[in-house]
């Protein structure tokens, strides 16, 4: 199996409800010990599509200034930058998102690396808000948690 898959993404998978529901699963037999929703997809391409959908839904929530959906993209063990604690980081993010009149987050040249229930998504991000426009490289480290891909760490630059 190819452990490294890359894809340049279009906008077809931008789904507003991508965080609301996990991937469709079939009922597991009663003898199964692990829940079906927690298992990583057997098909690497399916895992790549799930990560792609999660990253695009995160960008869409940010662009829509939907703070609840944006914050829901982050795992409970997310490591905020600059040594901030999680609560302070969330307060800061909420303020910075809500104070903007408009936000646009575009993702280009997305490359996804998938290894079991962990993934890395690297891309060129174009962020526009009010009169500011910035382009930078961004990397998100994601973990599959209860059938959903959630952000555990993010970094910019590089």
Describe the fold and architecture.
A four-stranded antiparallel sheet has the order 1-2-3-4. The longest helix is centred in the middle third of the chain and has 20 residues, at 44-63. It has one domain (39-156): Nuclear Transport Factor 2, Chain: A. The relative contact order is 0.19. It is an alpha+beta fold. It starts with 43 loop residues before the first helix and ends with a strand. It has three helices and four strands. A hairpin with a 2-residue loop joins strand 1 (103-115) and strand 2. The model is unreliable at 1-37 (pLDDT under 50).
Quick recap of the structure?
The protein has 158 residues and is an alpha+beta fold. Helices cover 24% and strands 30% of the residues. It has a 4-stranded antiparallel β-sheet.
Kindly give the count of domains: 1
Give the second-level CATH assignment, the architecture: Roll
Order of helices and strands: HHHEEEE
Question: Could you list the spans in which at least 5 consecutive residues all have pLDDT below 50?
Answer: 1-37
Query: Percent range for helical residues?
Result: 10-25%
Structure classification: alpha+beta
Strand runs, count: 4
Strand order of the largest sheet: 1-2-3-4
Shape label: globular
Gap from first CA to last CA:
28 Å
By CATH, the topology is: Nuclear Transport Factor 2, Chain: A
Please count the helical segments. 3
Q: Mean pLDDT, nearest integer?
A: 80
Rg over CA atoms, rounded to whole Å, is 16 Å
Percent of residues in β-strands: 25-35%
Largest sheet features: 4 strands, antiparallel
Instruction: Kindly provide the name of the CATH class.
Output: Alpha Beta
Protein name: DUF4440 domain-containing protein
Keywords: Signal
Organism: Variovorax guangxiensis
Domain Cds6 C-terminal: 51-154
